[in-house]
Specification:
Shape: globular
Family: Belongs to the ubiquitin-conjugating enzyme family.
Keywords: ATP-binding, Nucleotide-binding, Transferase, Ubl conjugation pathway
GO molecular function, one term: ATP binding
CATH superfamily of the largest domain: Ubiquitin Conjugating Enzyme
Radius of gyration: 36 Å
Organism: Hapsidospora chrysogenum (strain ATCC 11550 / CBS 779.69 / DSM 880 / IAM 14645 / JCM 23072 / IMI 49137) (Acremonium chrysogenum)
Structural class: alpha+beta
Largest sheet: 4 strands, antiparallel
Order of helices and strands: HEEEEHHHHHH
Strand content: 5-15%
Protein name: Ubiquitin-conjugating enzyme E2 2
CATH topology of the largest domain: Ubiquitin Conjugating Enzyme
Oligomer: single chain
Number of domains: 2
Distance between the termini: 98 Å
Length: about 230
């Protein structure tokens, strides 16, 4: 089940330009990937962040794990070893201890793409109430300019990990392909008089009226002969 689902998810993701995925041919339950931060408004803009995802045998019923391989990422929701703490990767169901609702946690409708997009959103909108890196959470809350400068330093270092020949996609390359519209056939609505008949009879209603009159006259003649 897990391998089939991952094969289905991998194919469309390989066409995306904001992520580069390298599945382990000897173990399809382990993926290495590179994430481009393409949001121009992000303090992480321009970063090429490498990471690793591992999938359980009962995926998608249970969530994968996500760990950054880019060294020394400083973020409130990333542990010093690179492990990511994010609700979407927590086991399904409500959790009374953390207060997380089932709708915030993993479910079978999620997939690799939804995880990656959630990771990119989390970079700029960290959860600092229960941070994985307390120091980063405090710096983000109290000294945002200093935190941003530290993030930009990581962006510059991450660019050294860009594979040879690779580059960050342009905004135009990230635009979805245009959807082709089907034009109405104008002739369909301009039917000729012959087409408007829909195969009806060419008989004139006056003919039916004349035949009825003739039949009435014959009946009158028969009644007259009988009376005579």
């Amino acid at each position: 089940m897990a391998l089939k689902r991952l094969a289905q998810e991998l194919e469309p993701l390989e066409r995306e330009k904001w992520v580069a995925i390298q599945a382990d041919e000897t173990n399809m339950l382990r993926w290495k990937l590179g994430l481009w931060v393409v949001n121009p408004e992000s303090v992480w803009h321009g970063a090429y962040l490498t990471a690793e995802m591992k999938f359980p045998n009962d995926y998608p019923y249970q969530p994968p794990t996500f760990r950054f391989l880019t060294r020394n990422i400083y973020h409130p929701n990333i542990y010093p070893n690179g492990d990511l703490c994010i609700s979407i990767l927590h086991k399904p169901g409500d959790d009374a201890q953390s207060g997380e609702l089932a709708s915030e946690r993993w479910n079978v409708l999620h997939g690799v793409e939804s995880v990656l997009r959630s990771v990119l959103l989390l970079l700029d909108n960290p959860e600092i109430n229960s941070p994985a890196n307390v120091d980063a959470g405090v710096l983000y809350r109290d000294k945002r300019a200093e935190y941003n400068n530290r993030a930009k330093e990581i962006v510059e270092k991450s660019q050294k990990d860009i594979p040879a020949g690779a580059r960050m996609p342009t905004p135009e390359e990230l635009m979805p392909p245009p959807v082709k519209t089907v034009e109405d056939d104008a002739d369909f609505w301009n039917m000729t008089d012959d087409e408007a008949d829909f195969g009806g009879s060419d008989s004139d209603m006056d003919d039916f009226e004349e035949e009825d009159e003739d039949e009435d006259e014959d009946d009158d003649d028969k009644r007259y002969d009988n009376d005579a």
